[in-house]
Backbone:
């Protein structure tokens, strides 16, 4: 608080005292002068002074906001790019697929550079060249599956639809490549182990609960299963051999 | 008078007036007062005195709002013994505390205090104060006279300001 008082301050206080009339003490005058000191409060922050020109502030804010939005979107895109890069670096499958895609694109571009719309079509044709190698692995799991706990599951699938015969499965066959044969083999191979497993001591025995599902099967299925029992045993041996080989 | 000049000239007085009225945040309220004046700056009449009158009219309204709000809602502030008006100052405080000129105003009624602050801190005339407080000049004179008489009765006032 400012303790020095200007003439104006004294004039203000003296005016008030004279308006009240009577004799005023020095103590009261000093107190009023001190009160007058509140008029000389410390300078306030210059925030308002900076905002004197409101339109300019608004424009500046808008520009800043636009800049902020641009920077934010840029940062988000950069972060996503980093994430994709990290994923590519981490998983070899991703790199392989990316390489295949790039190779397919390059080969298609080299083959038909004038038709960019068709460049994507050769990709599926190029892809099947690789799958023969890759599906070579899946069949083994399929055979293994026929001899492993998954087989009862396929049994249960057939049990859930009692009216389904092998023909129906064969009809569906063309939709799933290489499945028809495996399905025809898998169903008996799965059934026989349900009865034969306890004697054979193969770990399929725990999934005996699948046998109730076979109770709902048609007689044709049962006959077929009995008729193919010896075949399934052979298949089983084959599949076991393959399974070991694959392992 | 530009807004810049208005702010530089009167913001200390407005802030001092609000501080003497014990508004919770005098600086923020001062900013509010000037922001309320800003849209009307083009239509101001009466020169510097007109601007000053308008400023303290708005400041007075803010003070009234503050005390009305305070009467309804208890202030959620940290406890500061110096600001606790329910306590009576000790003899040491009365003797030592140099900034307790505001404590002298405790004996005044709100209207008497308002008149004194508007006359002395805001440096407004009797007519301007009467206009702001929506009273007659005579009643303002009466309030001022009674306020000074009440101050004069204070024991500490006789030796006020003398070492």
Residues:
């Amino acid at each position: 608080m400012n303790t020095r008082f200007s003439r104006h301050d004294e004039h203000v206080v003296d005016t008030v005292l004279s308006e009240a009339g009577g004799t005023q003490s020095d103590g009261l005058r000093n107190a009023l002068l001190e009160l007058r000191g509140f008029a000389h409060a410390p300078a306030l922050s210059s925030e308002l002074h900076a905002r004197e020109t409101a339109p300019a502030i608004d424009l500046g804010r808008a520009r800043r906001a636009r800049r902020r939005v641009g920077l934010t979107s840029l940062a988000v895109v950069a972060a996503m790019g980093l994430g994709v890069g990290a994923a590519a670096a981490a998983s070899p499958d991703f790199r392989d697929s990316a390489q295949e895609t790039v190779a397919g694109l390059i080969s298609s571009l080299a083959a038909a550079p004038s038709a960019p719309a068709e460049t994507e079509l050769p990709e599926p044709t190029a892809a099947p060249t690789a799958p023969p190698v890759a599906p070579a692995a899946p069949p083994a799991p399929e055979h293994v599956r026929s001899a492993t706990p998954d087989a009862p599951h396929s049994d249960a699938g057939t049990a859930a639809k009692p009216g389904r015969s092998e023909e129906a499965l064969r009809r569906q066959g063309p939709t799933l490549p290489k499945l028809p044969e495996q399905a025809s083999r898998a169903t008996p191979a799965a059934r026989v182990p349900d009865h034969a497993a306890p004697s054979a001591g193969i770990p399929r025995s725990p999934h005996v609960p699948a046998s109730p599902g076979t109770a709902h099967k048609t007689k044709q299925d049962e006959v077929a299963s009995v008729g193919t029992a010896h075949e399934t045993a052979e298949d089983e041996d084959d599949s076991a051999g393959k399974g070991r080989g694959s392992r | 008078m530009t807004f810049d000049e208005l702010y530089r000239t009167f913001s200390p007085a407005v802030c001092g007036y609000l501080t003497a009225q014990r508004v919770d945040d005098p600086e923020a309220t001062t900013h509010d007062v000037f922001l309320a004046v800003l849209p009307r700056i083009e239509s101001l009449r009466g020169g510097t005195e007109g601007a000053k009158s308008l400023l303290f009219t708005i400041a007075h309204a803010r003070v009234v709002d503050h005390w009305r709000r305070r009467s309804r809602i208890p202030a959620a502030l940290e406890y500061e013994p110096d600001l606790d008006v329910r306590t009576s100052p000790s003899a040491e405080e009365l003797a030592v505390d140099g900034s307790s000129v505001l404590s002298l105003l405790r004996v005044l009624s709100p209207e008497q205090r308002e008149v004194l602050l508007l006359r002395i801190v805001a440096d407004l005339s009797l007519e301007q104060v009467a206009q702001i407080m929506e009273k007659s000049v005579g009643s303002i004179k009466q309030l001022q006279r009674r306020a000074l008489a009440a101050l004069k009765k204070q024991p500490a006032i006789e030796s006020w300001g003398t070492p």
Summary: Residues 1-74 of chain B form one domain. The first helix of chain B runs from residue 3 to 20.
